[in-house]
Amino acid sequence: MGVLSRVVAAVSALVFAPAASVPAIAAEPPHRVVSMNVCTDQLAMLLAGEGQLYSVSYLASDPSASVLAGEAGRYAVNHGLAEEVFLMSPDLVIAGTYTTRTTVALLRRLGFRVEEFAPASSFADIREHIMRMGEILGRQEKAFELVAQMDAELAELRAQPSSGKTVALYYANNYTSGAGTLVDETVKAAGLVNIADKLGMQGTSQLPLELLVLEKPDLVVTSEGEYAAPALAEQGYVHPAFKALTGGRKAVNVPSKYTICGAPFTLEAVRIMRDAARTQEGKTQ
Amino acid sequence: MIETARYRLLLGLLAAAAIILFVLSLTVGPAAIGFGESIAALFDSKEAGPLALIMQEIRLPRAILGLMIGATLGLSGAVLQGYLRNPLAEPALLGISATASLGAVLAIYTGFSLVFPLGLPLAALAGAVVAVIVVQAMAGMRGGALTIILAGVALSSLAAAMTSLALNLSPNPFAALEIMFWMLGSLTDRSMTHVWLAAPFMVVGWAMLASVGRSLDTLTLGRDAAASMGVDLRRVQLLAVLGTAASVGAATAVAGAIGFVGLVVPHLLRPFVGARPSRLLPASALGGACVLLAADILVRVIAPGKDLKLGVLTAIVGAPFFLWLVYRTRRNLL
Questions:
Q1: What is the pLDDT of residues B213-266, one digit of tens each?
Q2: Whether pLDDT at A90 is above 70
Q3: Identical fold between A31-151 and A161-284
Q4: Angle, nearest 10°, between helix axes A140-159 and A38-47?
Q5: CATH topology for A31-151?
Q6: Residue A266 pLDDT more than 80?
């Protein structure tokens, strides 16, 4: 019965009130915002005014995916389902361009205002996303502040001398990030050379263990140990050839939560890599 | 006499093919290393450089496992076909590989095998034993060839479903993606650790399976006749069951379930050995090794970088063969 009544409500909303609930670019900022994507969740949490953000996705409180997991508890939780978002009656829904496609289509048909954000693949994207989120939420000033601060920190990091050391990104299931990814940008900002670029790899693709061993990078960056339960995906990290490559030293662990989503905290990944390169330099000299 | 000479020639040819494929397997991989260079690196000291590391820690274990797992599948297929006197018997079709997978999955994803590494092959062995006992019970109840295969189908589906369930329930998001590995099998990036873990169980299993060859010859005359000729049926049963479980269990624990090799190879070789099970066993072991090494070379050549699963190739060849076999033998089966 519950489902039926919700369907009836949805249909009647579709039939009777399509025009009324589609505001043109709102003169007044939205005051009940629902975000359905872990990246927009975090940008909204950074920018929204008091009481403006109503709900974030369940991933926002997952410490392995979200940097702001601690703060996510203050908001209602959604799972990106049309029904649950509908019942929250938001005046703005924010989503990613790749996930919850059917939900977005349905919510639009029901007359909700939905704003979509593509995943960030560069610092320029992050800048743009922060500014756009600020505009949507009517928080331009705060957005401007965040961007200025991020740019200052980034400039400071880039101004440091680059070590030119080679680095291999080696994630679960042998995945690596090549040209055109946010991770690749952080590697460059850290003054390092990504071996995936040397091998001509584009985007996220698999780097066979053999090639990793052959390239002999100075640093290996992993994101191991993010999940308590074991999986074969992380077996690469215990392979004798991998262990011989890192020479008993632990690989540099850059938690993927810093690079899954582009935000000011992505600079943390740059810092970790830069520090690791410096530590290694100190040891070899 | 001529027959014996022909048999020896066959074994010699198969062994030569296995050696050639073993060496080829060592020289195929994403890192483009020349043939001479790679063989030289195989014997270098490990500190010599990345080439030695690649050859000794990545490609060598892969080739060894290909050889041993192929031999396991060929040998156990031949024994099961002879012992159950069923042309359609083989570890994967009877559900033995699938239940071994389930055992291995439970050991790995609960973290048990991290604490106790031997737990992995032992759990897979336990899974395999369950399947062999179920199949055995079905065969014992005057079950025809079809009954056994149907029991195997049911067992496979159940084990596959339970494997999927266990992997989907894992809090690690990667676990669910690994269903493919456990259902189709792969030798990508296995290590010497896997070889040491699985090899003892496989060797013990082979010894058990090889020892039933003579009894299988007598069994071709029928169970009663064999018993009256002094064959200890209970002993044969124990050796066939435990030998299959130990070798297939260990093979599945490190490489996932690989189908059809155990079905196709004995059938292809039977005409050459004069339909004598004791002669078919060594030939099938060598033939299985050739087939699996060839399949493992092909997955790397056909789709480099795509991590194609072995079971995809073995099924493309094996499933039509199975259908043909069913078609040809259906008069006897029904």
A1: 999 999 888 888 888 988 888 899 889 989 999 999 999 999 999 999 999 999
A2: yes
A3: yes
A4: 110
A5: Rossmann fold (3.40.50)
A6: yes
- The DSSP line for A37-101 is SHHHHHHHHHHPPTTTEEEEEGGGG-TTT-TTHHHHTTSEEE-S-HHHHHHT--SEEEEESSS-H
Q: Which amino acid is at B57?
A: E
Q: What pLDDT, in 10s, does the model give residues B296-306?
A: 999 999 988 77
CA quadruple B85, B90, B91, B93: dihedral, nearest 10: -110
pLDDT at A192 over 80: yes
A161-284: CATH class: alpha beta
Q: Which residues in B lie closer than 8 A to residue A240 (C-beta atoms)?
A: 57, 191-193
**Min CA distance, A173 vs chain B (Å)?**
8
The H-assigned helical ranges of chain A are 2-16, 38-47, 69-72, 82-87, 101-109, 123-137, 140-159, 182-189, 195-198, 209-215, 240-246, 257-260, 267-284
> Could you give all domains of chain B from N- to C-terminal order, each with its CATH number?
68-333 (1.10.3470.10)
In chain A, domain spans:
31-151, 161-284
Task: Give the mean model confidence (pLDDT) for residues A142-155.
Answer: 96
Taken in order A179, A180, A184, A190, is the CA torsion positive or negative? Answer: positive
Nearest-angstrom CA–CA distance, A78 and A57: 5
The answer on pLDDT for A16 being more than 50 is: no
Interface of A with B (CB under 8 A): 172-174, 205-206, 208-211, 213-216, 227-236, 238-241, 244-245
Q: Mind telling me how many Å the CA of A208 is from chain B's nearest CA?
A: 7
Residue pairs between chains A and B whose CB atoms are closer than 8 Å: 87
**Exposed, middle or buried, B256 (CB in 10 Å: 0-12/13-18/19+)?**
buried
**Residues B101 and B184: beta-carbon distance below 8 Å:** no
CB-CB neighbours of B116 under 10 Å = 12
Residue A151 in tokens: 């740019």
Dig out the tokens for B16 from the structure: 């030569």
